[in-house]
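User: quick one, sequence for these tokens?
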């Protein structure tokens, strides 16, 4: 199924929830709507589903205009962040409900298959209230999958689950979606979740569609500073710099060996991902001296917050490391891994594909 939004906008009184945007999610693939709370993800999904009508623009399905067609007349499956199940029905009947509505045969076998995929077979004869939150959300997901709708919308379905359950379900969902023919729209506030889901990503911010494309491409090549801020976890380190006399000059008078397509002096913002800062020096690296302000161990990584003459930076170091607070530290980075944004926020430079893949190559 090919869904297309053309010139969609949405207002509520004096507030604009969605600014004029057009989007055609890849058919039969996963598209992640990535953005902070109130970026417009839910408003956009409600228009896709037919729950709301846009202020302007059109919603097309396989070339047919369905703008204003109510959700009950569309073949759409939805999963919300709340655990929405039929409380008076046992789990097996919850999952079977869309199959019974369509009058399908082989219902029990299909229920068993979905229950097995989502690891809820032991709970088929229980009621939703007898299940944990994670188990209830698995039931809601199984029911949505049973509907086998050409369009599946998931609005932050894992946000209310604990960390371990979220990690488990993320992996399972990406595998499940890969085996489905549905066009899947998945909303999340978490960049890491978008990367795990793969497929395509649409970055939203304050009701605007900033960029859409294959997830890895949007992550590695953000068009603007706003996209880079939205699609980085931990946040991208951002440093103010200046293009002067054919070189990038930092606040501490240090210059970097970076070539830019600029003819005159200009203010710049340099971006560097936390994972690209390290404490060992390679041949082409640039050194940054600073002071340790905080060191946090998270899983198998250590996040070190460092004060430098250019401002605060965060380094993501693999492994468990210990630092004395207030102690001097020297961080290093490969200048080929820098992002450079102009005064208007538009990207001027990004790491080359060879650099991102760890091979030596020119900028």
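Assistant:
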């Amino acid at each position: 199924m090919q869904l297309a939004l053309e010139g969609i906008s949405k207002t509520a009184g004096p507030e604009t929830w969605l600014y004029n945007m057009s989007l055609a999610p890849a058919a039969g693939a996963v598209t992640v709507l990535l953005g902070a709370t109130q970026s417009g993800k839910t408003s956009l999904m409600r228009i896709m589903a037919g729950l709301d009508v846009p202020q302007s623009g059109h919603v097309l399905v396989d070339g047919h205009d369905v703008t204003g067609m109510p959700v009950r007349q569309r073949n759409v499956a939805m999963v919300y962040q709340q655990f929405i199940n039929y409380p008076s029905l046992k789990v097996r009947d919850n999952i079977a409900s869309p199959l019974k509505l369509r009058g399908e045969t082989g219902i029990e076998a299909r229920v068993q298959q979905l229950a097995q995929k989502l690891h809820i077979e032991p709970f088929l004869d229980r009621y939703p209230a007898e299940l944990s939150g994670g188990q209830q959300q698995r039931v809601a997901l199984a029911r949505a999958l049973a509907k086998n709708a050409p369009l599946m919308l998931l609005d932050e379905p894992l946000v209310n689950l604990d960390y371990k359950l979220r990690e488990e379900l993320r992996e399972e969902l990406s595998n499940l979606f890969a085996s489905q023919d549905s066009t899947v729209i998945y909303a999340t506030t978490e960049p890491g979740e978008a990367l795990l889901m793969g497929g395509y990503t649409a970055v939203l911010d304050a009701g605007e569609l900033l960029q859409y494309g294959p997830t890895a491409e949007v992550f590695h090549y953000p068009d603007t500073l706003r996209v880079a801020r939205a699609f980085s976890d931990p946040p991208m380190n951002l440093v103010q710099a200046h293009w002067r006399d054919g070189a990038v000059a930092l606040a501490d008078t240090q210059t970097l060996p970076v070539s830019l397509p600029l003819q005159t002096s200009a203010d710049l913002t340099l971006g560097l991902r936390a994972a690209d800062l390290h404490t060992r020096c390679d041949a082409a690296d640039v050194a940054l001296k600073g002071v340790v302000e905080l060191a946090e161990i998270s899983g198998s990584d250590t996040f070190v917050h460092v004060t430098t003459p250019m401002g605060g930076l965060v380094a993501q170091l693999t492994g468990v490391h210990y630092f004395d607070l207030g102690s001097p530290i020297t961080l290093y980075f490969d200048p080929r891994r820098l992002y450079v944004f102009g005064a208007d926020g538009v990207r001027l430079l990004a790491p080359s594909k060879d650099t991102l893949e760890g091979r030596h190559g020119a900028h």
